[in-house]
Amino acid sequence: MDGDLAGMNKSSSMEVKEDMDTQSESAHQTSKDALIDISFCGSTPLLWKVSDMKRGRSVGVIGAVVGSLARQPRQNVRLGRPLELLQEEALLLEETSTAAASLQPQVDRGDEERHSEAVRQYEAGLESSYKEQCALALEDKKTVLRRIMKEKENDSSSLLDCLNALDQAFCLMWSERSFHSTDWPMPRDERLNTRFCVYRDLRNKGLYLTSTGKFGGDFLVYPGDPLRFHAHFIALCISMDDELPLCDILAIARLGSNVKKTVLLCSPVEGDVVYSSLQWCSMV
């Protein structure tokens, strides 16, 4: 009787341990999937996955699409993936542990050999596919001649055989692998630090920021999602130690008046940011 009870207790403890291990693995996988995978082209942060773009949008990261559409590549009115982020947006995601950098790993000798073998197989597949397509083209010409001469429809079975042959001759290219790394290949200087302090402070206040484009300044500041609101402010990031000439102040204020936006002078001071608004009132 005591032996049966001991066996039951041991079995129960093993089941509890297995459940805990399963929950731990599930939590680890969930936390990994929740990361936003940021790729870098030089020092430019990019998002390629739609899921990462949605997660970034949910935390206020806007960015700008810079890729061409597959079906309409020769135009720049409508753009697609990837989504180019401001460096401040990428730094904010990295600071809040929301994202991880995806870099190309160093290729060791074994990877080089596998890559060479994959390239050789791919080239052999291309050669085989070329010969197959030549044979298919010749067969198509014969089929057209038979149809003209005999006024009959093409045999569907030959077309099915051709499709099956093409499917078997297709060879996938060797794909790059990505891994999570803590290295962020972006230059950090005083100018970028000033912009990032302002960007982080405005985001913490619930505002949305994008690049200024034709409006000048450093950021366009929106009270909500840019798809629903117009920008209210043009943020200009300057250090408290920098001198701003009077002519530049007048030019910036005049610019804000022309585009119907308020100019914000943003200066980080001891962990905080001081804001000054400029508004063009009348001629001096």
Protein architecture, described:
It is a single chain. 47% of the residues lie in helices and 19% in strands. The protein has 3 domains: 70 residues, no CATH class; 60 residues; 89 residues, Trna Endonuclease, Chain: A, domain 1, CATH 3.40.1350.10. The strands form 2 sheets. Strands 3-4-2-1-5-6 form a 6-stranded mixed β-sheet. A 5-stranded mixed β-sheet has the order 7-8-9-10-11. Helix 3 packs across helix 6 and helix 4 runs antiparallel to helix 5. It has 7 helices and 11 strands. The relative contact order is 0.09. By secondary structure, it is α+β, with helices and mostly antiparallel strands.
Task: Describe the secondary structure blueprint for this structure.
Layout: H1 2-33, E1 36-41, E2 44-47, H2 50-58, E3 64-67, E4 80-84, H3 87-95, E5 99-103, H4 109-150, H5 156-169, E6 179-181, H6 190-204, E7 208-211, E8 219-222, E9 233-237, H7 246-258, E10 262-269, E11 272-278
Parallel strand pairs: 1-5, 9-10
Antiparallel strand pairs: 1-2, 2-4, 3-4, 5-6, 7-8, 8-9, 10-11
Helix pairs in contact: 3-6, 4-5
Spatial order of the strands in the main sheet?
A: 3-4-2-1-5-6
CATH architecture group name of the largest domain: 3-Layer(aba) Sandwich
String of helices and strands: HEEHEEHEHHEHEEEHEE
* CATH domain fold name of the largest domain: Trna Endonuclease, Chain: A, domain 1
Estimated structural class: alpha+beta
Share of helical residues: 40-55%
Q: What CATH first level of the largest domain would be assigned?
A: Alpha Beta
Number of helices: 7
Give the low-pLDDT segments. 103-107, 176-180
Number of domains: 3
Shape: elongated
- Round the mean pLDDT to the nearest integer and report it: 76
Largest sheet: 6 strands, mixed
User: What distance separates the N and C termini?
Assistant: 102 Å
Number of strands: 11
Radius of gyration: 30 Å
Task: Report the β-strand fraction as a percent range.
Answer: 15-25%
